[in-house]
Amino acid sequence: MPTRDDVQRCLRTSLRRLGDARSVEHGVVTSAATGALALVDPAALGPRARFALRLANAGLGAVIVWASLRDEPQLQADTSLRGGLTAGAAGLTLAAAELGEAADARFQHRLRRAGVPAPRVAMALGAVAATAASWWFSKRSADQRELEELERLFTDEQSPFETVLVDVPGPIRAVVAALLERTEDHGSYELRAQLQLARATTLADRTDEAIDLVASFAVPDGSPLAVPGNANFPVIGRFTWGGQVFETVLSAQEGRLANVSLVPAGDWTDVELAAWYDQDFDEAELPAWPDPADLEFLVETREGLKPLA
What's residue 279's pLDDT? Predict the structure, then answer.
């Protein structure tokens, strides 16, 4: 049965998806809401109900504008400007409400004269179709811009993903050493020798201070190679942070140290994993790599993971 935390994470994920103008959820909800509001005849309402309808239309417009501005590069770091534009759009919708209602009445009258049996339903279906089409073309345009940006990045002479070699951070080196010291098998001797000479790779222009969930290594040519050459090291380290269990997993490729990573443990629920991969959790929530003294070491066996003494 889902826990309260599971439900909260699911709600946060759903709200985040609704705020993404390119998500299907956003397109469906905004199209349905537009159609529902179009079913209401403003001319048949009293002053208070009509004002409430105007507020609902302005609110829906604000949601659509806020979401559509999410991917604008100049607004990503300036939420105040984004909020100002959204508020301006809502205000403009309210200011133009009377003109819109007059046009609505004229259009409804024309539909009746044309013999349409349910003009409000026809208008609502038209509003749904127009909103869905607008969402679709906006999504295609945004996807195309993103694709063009990626193509531009990868065709630039200076790659934005250029990496450099740095000393392996002390906490990461300590975790890897602790994993390798727990057994003399599975190429641990060779991997320990490689760790002494290994460097870590990182982005050349990195400026953030978040910890790396994956640390990759560069091992000098001529280093002794481990066997098996391509595998996860069978010893893992398990620790708990923030009520969640994580594991440190070490991998080798072609007989060399490849990387060590912090990953969710195998007992996470599907909702928790979805929140993790949707970045409801992120590096900022993990303060640092664990101290080896805080790790519970387990080894992979035919019967599954078993604790090491």
Answer: 59
